[in-house]
Specification:
Blueprint: E1 2-7, E2 14-16, H1 42-46, H2 54-63, H3 67-77, H4 84-95, E3 99-102, E4 107-110, H5 116-120, H6 124-139, H7 142-157, H8 167-177, H9 186-199, E5 204-209, H10 223-238, E6 241-248, H11 251-261, E7 266-271, E8 277-279
Antiparallel strand pairs: 1-2, 1-6, 3-4, 5-6, 5-7, 7-8
Helix pairs in contact: 3-6, 6-8, 7-8, 7-10, 9-11
Amino acid sequence: MSSHWEDGTNDADTSFKAITAYDGRQPRQPPDSGQRRDGKSWSDLSSYTMQISVDGFSRMSAAGVDGLTLSVGQGLLGVFKLSELGERRVQTAVEKLTKRRAFHKGLVFGFGSRHLVRSVTKTAEGLSCVALCASMGEFYGRDTCASILRELLNLAFHPPPHLSPSLRQWALMIEAFQGTLAVSDFGALCGKMYQAYRSCGMDERVSISRPQRGLLMPPAGSTKQIAQALVGLMKLTEGTMRAMTLTGGPDCVWFAVVAEWLFGLNVLMKNDRTGQEREGKCLQKI
């Protein structure tokens, strides 16, 4: 999967092997300085603070997620800015989560009243964290999601190894939030978009831009490529970049649904071979 985008300072498309933005008006930082070209550094994330109660620690312990992983996860994924509609969609999904009892109420399935997802989604950063983890969990397997998050952290912030959560911890965080969107139409939209993608000849280009005013499958692109595209999506939601184009396999389907469903971005799906297009609010036209 390859990507290119336009930032807010230049009308021309610029191609990149890695999704990073560089403003030519600012001097480049040395690669070993710890400063990202887009202005983000590990110090930005390491200064993130999270308040949690003893009951919250109990919920984390029950899920197997440690404090470092949850704080880094919220600091990383909290940078993504959900649209107002996206926030309402995720909050509605959380409110609809239920639990079921079996064996004379001795065994409980589902999301109980003290589940970790309920406390994490009380903040905007936590809501973004749950939204991204849950949406990835609807499309990719748990271990693939964990690899994507580790690559995203490395690309966006370059953390020191001893403060970077392990793959196992990332997987446990995904597992804790996976299924949150099961009661929403997100998974069904991914499935329908994937069928539309297949009907177009398996050769898709997706353009994602800011407005002017459960399908498990192996990734077609590498986890690093997916993480690179997520960095671009992060910049779009922050407003520091204007547009992004992705060319590749079925990963484009997930990005198209997430960009519109969670972030309210304009999406254009185009088949380069046939010229067929799905433009604007494409999710409502499936």
